[in-house]
Amino acid sequence: MKTSDFDFNLPEELIAQTPLEKRDNSRLLVLGRENGEIEHKHFFDIFDYLKEGDCLVLNDTRVLPARIYGIREGTGAVVEFVLLKQLGTNLWECLAGPGKKAKTGYSFKFSDRLNAIVEDVLPDGNRVLKFEPKGEFFECLDEVGQMPLPPYIKAELADQERYQTVYSKEVGSAAAPTAGLHFTRELLQKLQDKGVKLAFVTLHVG
Prior knowledge:
This protein has helices spanning 137-144, 185-194; strands at residues 27-31, 38-42, 55-59, 61-63, 67-72, 78-88, 91-97, 107-111, 114-121, 127-133, 170-173, 197-201.
């Protein structure tokens, strides 16, 4: 099996670049299990498909502003890093581009409060960065980081909270669990009033 087997045409003009003002007004595609019928709905219509006693499991992970740009000491070269996974205290596995400008031992400055050194280059090309924050790491990251939007989203995100679910809680993801972005607090409350149970798990997206 090849990854190319999963290629399909997705016209750029059909990719939404900005979120809807109301989250639950997004589109919902419903496939009937028994008859295979396809219905085009809105996300708020999910209310009609969940019954009393059902359990809705939600991922309460919260997205880091994981895309940061560092300036290499000595050359001034700019490298983009995306934090993927925390390996230890201030130690992170990251994507890096261009990778040839982020070799082992190179130092980078992200702000007056945040520096890092490349400690290792992994077999898959990812980098291990040891950060040296002045203060609490996540506070420093909030000052310089950007939301790691998918590459097909070209528009700048005005409100970074829009790339979080309304129930996000546990910081640690490099991307949002996107299906959950369409829930509103009001919709969740309506479902609970209907007798739908909510359960939360924490699954960080790396």
